[in-house]
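Why do we bother with holo predictions? Because pocket geometry can differ from the apo form. Keep that in mind while you read this record for manganese (II) ion.
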Amino acid sequence: MTVNAEIHAGGNTWRSLPAAQQPEWPDQEALRDVIAELESYPPLVFAGECDQLRQRLGAVARGEAFLLQGGDCAEAFDAVGADQIRNKLKTLLQMGAVLTYAGSVPVVKVGRIAGQYSKPRSKPTETRDGVTLPTYRGDSVNGFAFTPEARTPDPQRLKRMYQASASTLNLVRAFTTGGYADLRQVHAWNQDFVKSSPSGQRYEQLAREIDRAMNFMNACGVDPEEFKTVEFYASHEALVLDYESALTRVDSRTGQLYDVSGHMVWIGERTRQLDGAHIEFASKIRNPIGVKLGPTTTADEALTLIERLDPDREPGRLTFITRMGAGKIREKLPALVEKVTASGAQVVWVCDPMHGNTFEAASGHKTRRFDDVLDEVKGFFEVHKGLGTHPGGIHVELTGDDVTECVGGGDEIFVDDLHQRYETACDPRLNRSQSLDLAFLVAEMYRDQ
Ligand SMILES: O=C[C@H](O)[C@H](O)COP(=O)(O)O
Ligand SMILES: C=C(OP(=O)(O)O)C(=O)O
Ligand SMILES: [Mn+2]
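The structure, written out:
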């Protein structure tokens, strides 16, 4: 074996360990063919970009920047269109502008985008009217329609995941470097929104202030081209390990392994077993890694995760994304933060205020209350303030479209409205107005910190 082949084999050590939440592909030979094809595809990201994001996250870990990570719960193949991608990006850029300006902090912008196609589920099957079928596991695995054909896992979908990720990332790169994301467009992102929404009007006020600040900087001689491009990164849950490891490559510069399916990947609450395949896989790659931590996480588990994933204690390598629920965060988070801090590790602490606050409305819709989301973020800030640690960022499920999936917000959505535009393939997302509301409130919390 050549040195590189040996190192690459290191990317497959997970295969001997139990892997939770993997699809039951009916045809193993078809799966092997797909993996071989994926292995021949070009990388979606460059390892150097992953390093750059790790450095940016290092600044977050040191308390010098804030992470904004957001996007769909589950991206869908039929939503890979210019309008949807632009709306999501625009929402994240607007939130980033609010946080940077009103929170006075550099914001590292990372989408749950261009790869967020695979879902862990709480049940393996779904029953409707006495018919039981495999549960929907994301467009990378099976179809959302409730038919035996759609719900049968099909490995060909992994190739569509790659293609959908590539198209999405291509447009995101075009927008963020080609002028659309130019800070001087700060008003243009809001044009369709300002009249119809209170948060849009509040944003417009802020955009005017940003304009004045930019005019001031121009007058001082700052080159306006400085504002032209935005650094934006792609992230997703590394769930289907056959896909992730097929896209894991040896970096020619360093000889190290990178998962080139996205800049950052995270391990979910349901797959973070210390002796499981997902943590093993993540331990072998150099990308920045996130791990979701739910309310049952013990401090010892968090410390072992650090040993496994960040043995060199490198700020920016490991992000803990806590998702405790509004009712539990104040009780559960302090012990984790205290013990991790005492161990000398410098992780990024991020609040996912979505996944601990999901409930089913009487109508049957899975939903979340904006006030619970906000309360969890508040609890997160309170805990970090109390301990003198840095509240490093937020991780949210959102979309740029005016959906009615979460209740509450300044432009209030009521439980009775949920059916109007409920479009998510999995979890309920904040719509654009709710996302902007959240950004303003988080900016205030950050400033008060
Ligand atoms: O983000 C995803 C969901 O939280 C996860 O798939 C669990 O959802 P479920 O309980 O509907 O399966
Ligand atoms: C499944 C998800 O989260 P968690 O692993 O925290 O439940 C998710 O982020 O969509
Ligand atoms: Mn989700």
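Residues 293 and 322 are 5 Å apart (CA to CA).
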